[in-house]
Amino acid sequence: ELYTKDLCVRFATRSGDIPAVNHVSLAFSERQVTGIIGETGSGKSVLGLSFSLLQSNASVTGQIFLGERELTALSERELCTVRGREIALVAQNPATSLNPSRAGGTPD
Question: What is the dihedral of CA 52, 54, 55, 57, to 10 degrees?
Fold first, then answer.
């Protein structure tokens, strides 16, 4: 099971910190496909990326658990053993992200 407790993600910019995800607590059940929907800019992608793939100017607070392991406490090397094997993200346009013939192409 993957779950978060009071997850917050902020991005450091020249203009100050920009909040992207605020105080999210949720759970994803094992062996169950779950989708997150929302308006453009609502934080869906940032939420998904916060589990282990955010860029360096992002700060994550709160807790993210995969089973008994807290992902925010893992080193980069430890996260590499988790990514793709135990956790993955399908981008917002799954029709193109799952179709290798369209890799790098323009979205519809």
Answer: -110
